[in-house]
Amino acid sequence: MATETRILEELGETKDLLDDVGGVPPRWPRGEEDDRSPFRDSERGYPSRNAKLGMAMFLGVETMFFAGLIAAFLYLRLNASEWPPASQPRLPVFVTGINTLLLLASGFTMWRVQGPAARQDSGRPARGLGMTFLLGTVFLVVQGYEWARLVRFGLTFSSGSYGATFYTLIGLHGLHVLGALTWLAALQLAAKKKRLAPHHPRVFLCAMYWYFVVALWPVLYGLVYLV
Amino acid sequence: MSDSVGAAVAVHDTHTGYERLGFVRTYIFSTDHKMIGRQFLFLGLFMLVVGGFLAMLIRWELGWPQTPVPGFGWLFKDTEGVIPPEAYNMLFTMHATLMIFFVVMPIMVGCFGNFLIPLMIGARDMAFPKLNMLSFWTGAVGGVIMLAAFFVPGGAAASGWTAYAPLSAVTEYTGVDWGQNLWCISLFVLGISSLMGAINYITTVINMRAPGMTLFRLPLVIWSLFITAILLLFALPVLTSAVVMLLFDRLLGTHWFLPKGGGEPLLWQHLFWFFGHPEVYILVLPAMGVTSEVLSTFSRKPIFGYRAMAYSMIAIAFLSWIVWGHHMFVSGMNPMIGMSFMLSTMVIAVPSAIKTFNWLGTLWGGSIRFKTPMLHALGFVSTFVIGGLSGIWMANTPVDIFIHDTYFIVAHFHYVVAGIIFAMFASVTYWFPKMFGRVMNEMLGKIHFVLTFIFFNLTFFPMHILGLGGMMRRIYDPTQYEFLQALQPINHFMSISALLLGASQIFFIANFFWSLFAGKKAEDNPWKANTLEWSAPSPPPHGNWAGSPPTVHRGPYEYSSPEVEEDYFPQNRPHPALTGAGSSARVGGH
Ligand code: HEM
Ligand SMILES: [Cu+2]
Fold it and tell me: What CATH code is carried by the domain that includes residue A173?
C-alpha cells in the first residue's frame, strides 16, 4: 500500500479518482520497458493517465460525430443550385461573430484556470470557473435569442435543407455547450466545497471538454455563417 | 501456481482489494470485467436465437412461397399463417440488424473484449470498470428498444439493415412508422454503448499492461480487439450522426435525405457505408484474432509471422476507410471515383491474404490437435477464404454492376459475416473453461461442428449460383418471376439445409447448458496454452489473480520451444536458467 500512495503522489492523483480508473498503472521492471511504445508518459515511466487518455478518445468520437454532420452539410450545400435560397432569411453574421469572440474568451478564462500558468500559484480555481461559466451562458442565451428571431422570420427545421442543416448543426453544438455548462457548474460546486487544486484531474478533464466545444465553434461559424 | 512468480516487481503486492459483494452487485450491476463479458455473451446468445428464428421464417418464405408457416402461423393471423410481403421486409431487416449489432458485436467485441483484455494483458480489471458496467446496460437498453419495435403498430423497420433513404425516411413508403424510429433510436443508444466500450478497451490496452507486456508481446486477439476499438471509435460516430439526421427527417420534417426539400438520398449511402465498411472489419477482426490464438495453440507451434499479422490488421483498418464506395458502384458515381474505389478495395485483399497464408503457415508441420475449438477455427478460415475471394471478384466494377443486389452478394457476406459464427463457437468452446470453470463436452462439440459446417455450406454456397442466375436479393416470392422459376428447386434445397442448420444448433445449446451446470471441473490451463489468462484460476476471482498479477517474460506463442521440455512456455514463467530450476531446462546448447 505504501508504494501505491507514493505513486499516487507522484502522479498527482487522488484516491477517489483511482476507484474510477481501475487502480495505479503498473510500473515496469527496468530494462523491460517497451521503448518503442509511443504511449509512454516519458520521464516518469508511467503510462499516460487513464482518465486523460479516455477523455482524449471521447473527444475523438465527438470530432467524428461532427465530421459526419459537417460532411453531410457540405455535400448538400455544394450540390445545391443556390445557397442560401432566395426566399429564406439570412443568418445573423455580425451578432454571431461577437458571440464567437465571447466563446473564445471563455476558452481563455478556462486556460487561465488550469493552463501552465495556473500551476505556479496555488490559487483556487472556483472564480475562473465562474467566469468561464458566465461567458458560456451568455453565448448560449444569445444563440437562443437569434434562433427565436430566425424562427419568427420563417426559417424552421422543415424549410428545406438550408433550415435543416442550420438547425441541426448549430443546435447540436448548442446541446454540447449546454452539457459542458452543466459539467462546469457541477465542477464549480465541487471546487468550492473540496478546494480542488487547479491541476486536479477533474478540472483538467472538464477543461479538455470545454476546449473542444470552444474550438468546434469557429469551424461551424465559418462554414455555416461566413462562407 | 509456480507460474505467478515475479511478485518482486509488481506494485499490487498486498491484496487484491476486492471484498465479497451481494447478489445484485455480483451478477447484475457488476463492475467485474468477466461478469460483464458473460452478460454480453448471454445477451448475444439470446439475440442469436431471435435472429436465427427470423432467418428460418425468411427461408420458409423463399423455399415454400406463400404457404402457411408450420407451427408459427399464429404470428400472421390476418393472412392465415402466410407471411405477408410487408412482414417479409421486416424479417430480413431485423434479421440482419440483430445479427450484426446484437449478436456478433456483443459476443465477439463485447463479451470477448471484456473477458479477455484484462486477463490477457495481466490487469486486474478494465481501466474504467464503472463505465464498463454502464456500457453493458446501455447496450441492453438498446436491445430492448430494438425488440420493442416488433410490438408497435406498423411493426419493426422494413427498409433493410442499410436503411436506404428515401425508403427509410418516409413512413408511407414502407408503412412502418415507429418501428423505423425505434430502429434509429436503438442504434443511437447502442452506439453510445459501443463507444464507451471502445474507449475502455483502448485505454486498458495502452495503460494497464502488466510489467513486461510490450506491444509486440500482446496476443494477437488483443491486437485485433485494440484495432477494432479504434475502428469503432472513428466509424461509429458517423453512423450515429446519420441516424440522428434520419430521425430528424422522420420526426422534425428536415430534408437531409429527401430530394423535395434539397436533400440527397445518396448522402445516406455515403454516410452509411463510410461506417458500414469499417463495421464489417469491426465484426471480423476479433474473429481473426481468436483464430490466431486457437490455431497456434492447437498446432503447438508459434503463430507464423506474428508481426506481419499485427501489421496486416493495421493495414486493413486503414484501408477500410477508403473503400466504402464499392457498395455504391451502381449509384451512378463518376467512373473515375468508381475506379479508385475498385482499386483500393482490391488492395485490401492483400493484408487479408497475408493473414490467411500465415494461418496456413502456422498449421504447416504442426502437431495438430483436432479439438472442438480448433475445428471451428479451421471452419472460420475456410469460410473466410471463400468470402474473401468472392469479395475480390465483386470489387471489379464491371462484375459488380452485373451482380449487385443479387444473391451473389448475399452469398459473399454470409461467408464472411455469418462465417464469424465459427470463430464465435471457437472462442466460446476455447474459453469456456476459463469463463465458467467447467469443460465442454468434446463429443457433442464435434457433432455440432460437423453438422454446422456441412449445413452452412449447403445453405450458403448455392446462393452464388442463384445470384449469377439473376435472383435479386430482398424479393418476397421468387416464383413470381418467370426466369427464376427454374431455380426454385435450389431455393427449396437451401431452405431445407437452413432449417437443418438451425436444428443443429440444438447440440450447441444442449452442450452449453449441460456443461455450465454439470460439466467436468476445469483445470487452470486445460489446453496447455501460453497466454496470461491461463495462469489465473478457472474461473478467475474478482481481481483475477489471487496473489500478485503476473509479469511477462516472452511473447504469447512459444510453443514447442527448444528451451524447455514441455511443448509450451507460458508468458509469465521466468526462464528456467534464471530461477535455478535447471532440471527442466535444456539450455546450454548455444
Ligand atoms: C477480401 C476482402 C473483401 C472484399 C474485396 C469485399 C468486397 C465487397 C464488395 C465489392 C461488396 C459490395 C457488393 C455489392 O453490393 O454489389 C461487398 C459487400 C459486402 N461485404 Fe465484402 N468484401 C471483403 C470482405 C468482407 C468482410 C471481411 C466482410 C465482413 C466480415 C464483408 C461483408 C460484406 C457485407 C455485409 C456486404 C454487403 C452489405 C449489404 O449490401 O448489405 N466483406 N463486399
Ligand atoms: Cu464493404
Answer: 1.20.120.80
Do residues A165 and A59 both lie within one domain?
A: yes
Distance CA B349, CA B391 (A): 8
How many alpha carbons fall within 13 Å on the CB side of residue A142? 18
User: For B293-311, b where at least 16 C-beta lie within 10 A, e where not — what string?
Assistant: bbbbbbbebbbbbbebbbe
Integer Rg of chain A from CA: 22
Quick one: A95 and A130 in the same domain? Answer: yes
Query: Is some CB atom of chain B closer than 8 A to the CB atom of A89?
Result: no
Domain that holds residue A70: 50-226
A139 and A95, same structural domain?
A: yes
Cβ contacts of residue B523 below 8 Å, gap of 6+? B433, B538
Which residue do the cell numbers 474473401 mark?
B388
- pTM value? 0.90
- Residue B25 is classified by DSSP as I
Asked if residues A21 and A50 have their Cβ atoms less than 8 Å apart, the reply is: yes
* Pairwise CA distance, residues B395 & B352, whole Å: 14
Running DSSP on this structure, what letter comes out for residue B9?
G
Contact A197, A104 (CB under 8 A): no
A33 with A55, same domain: the answer is: no
Q: Alpha carbon of A154 to those of A22, A77, A133, A147: distances in Å?
A: 52, 20, 32, 11
How many CB atoms sit inside 10 A of residue B50's CB?
19
Ligand nearest, relative to CA of residue B324: 2
Is residue B439 classed exposed, middle or buried when 0-12, 13-18 and 19+ CB atoms within 10 A define those classes? middle
A170 occurs within a structural domain? yes
**B412 Cα: distance to centroid of ligand 1 (angstroms):** 7
User: 3-class secondary structure for B101-116?
Assistant: HHHHHHHHHHHHHHHH
Does some domain include residue A45? Answer: no
How many Å apart are CA A59 and CA A62, to the nearest integer?
5
HSE value, Cβ hemisphere, 13 Å, CA-based, for B438: 13
Alpha helices by DSSP H, listed for chain A, are 2-11, 15-20, 50-79, 93-114, 116-120, 126-152, 160-194, 201-220
Give me ligand 1 centre to Cα B220, in Å. Answer: 24
Q: Angle CA(B92)–CA(B93)–CA(B95) in degrees, nearest 5?
A: 60
Name B193's Cβ contacts closer than 8 Å, sequence gap at least 6. B135, B136, B138, B139, B142
Angle at alpha carbon of residue A10, lines to A6 and A14, rounded to 5°: 80
Residues A30 and A60 grouped into a single domain: no
Side chain identity at residue A46, one-letter code: Y
Kindly state whether residue A81 falls inside one of the protein's structural domains: yes
pLDDT along chain B (590 residues), means of 10: 35 48 84 95 97 97 95 92 95 97 97 97 89 96 97 94 95 93 98 96 89 90 97 96 96 92 93 96 97 97 96 95 94 91 94 96 95 98 96 94 96 97 97 96 97 98 96 95 95 97 97 95 95 94 84 91 90 79 41
Q: Which three cell numbers stand for residue A17?
A: 479518482
Domains contained in chain A, number: 2
Residue B539: asked if its preceding bond is cis (omega within 30°), the reply is: yes
> In 3D, which of B117, B202, B203 has the Cα closest to residue A20?
B203
Among A50, A63, A81, A88, the strongest candidate for a mutation testing the B interface, having the largest count of B CBs within 10 A, is A50
Are residues A112 and A220 both part of a single domain?
yes
Q: Give the model confidence (pLDDT) of B79-138 as tens digits.
A: 999 999 999 999 999 999 999 999 999 999 999 999 999 999 998 889 888 899 999 999
Q: The domain B5-535: what is its CATH number?
A: 1.20.210.10
Name residues contacting ligand 1 (CB within 6 A).
B 162, 280, 283-284, 326-327, 345, 348-349, 352, 388, 391-392, 394-395, 400, 404, 409, 412-413, 416-417
